[in-house]
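Pilot study result, target chain (250 residues):
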Amino acid sequence: MKSLIIEASLLEIVWSDTIEYLHINWMSISDYCVSLKIFPLDSLPRLRKLYLGRFPNLEMISQDHVHNHLEDMTIKECPKFESLPANMHTLLPSLNELLIEDCPKLESFPAEGLPSNLKFMKLNNCSTLLVDSLNGAFRDNPSLERLSIEKVDAECFPNEGLLPPSLTHLTIIYSPNLKKLDYKGLYQLSSLRSLTLSNCPNLQCLPEEGLPKSISNLQISWCRLLKKRCLKERGEDWEKISHIQTLYIR
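Predicted structure:
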């Protein structure tokens, strides 16, 4: 068996060294599902894609050995999830996509950093995940290209040196606390081609110095203060973006 999509009530039958794709979404009341606190990744050595959703008591993913096959991991709607594998930077060498959504207990990333081959990361509605926890997370990561982050818990983002220069696409959404973009933090993103800002109602303006020249695609939506400043030929920030090839502002 290489692929399996199941309810969590059947979880006890799936530990196997042949499964490559596993999608588990809690759909029914199950004593096993309710009690599961630790997901043993080592029990699935051939796994390439993992989706864990709606586990009410899941706290962490355990891992003691190098997992050479896992490429894609999604953790969604797990209200008590608080810990990624401590040594995932070395234990998950093939991981290139990481999605974490609606996990309000997750406060930080492993101190050792994230896997060096990670190319795409999406963080949605992780209310206690501090922006500061990104510091050092990418220090040994030359590969991250796409980052989507929801509810940035900072008035200014990204801090200088926070994000890797390999980043080509940055999306910031639903961040009511965000008031300004840090030019130094953006300027270091020498490969950045696309910037999306959505539902940031208190984002006041673009950096005084403008945006990195590498950006060729800018999307601004539902940012009422910023939209006014970016009106064509009339807005105070128009000259900062008029050269950008693809503009979408609403």
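One observation from the pilot: Residues 152-250 form one domain. A full batch analysis is planned for the follow-on phase.
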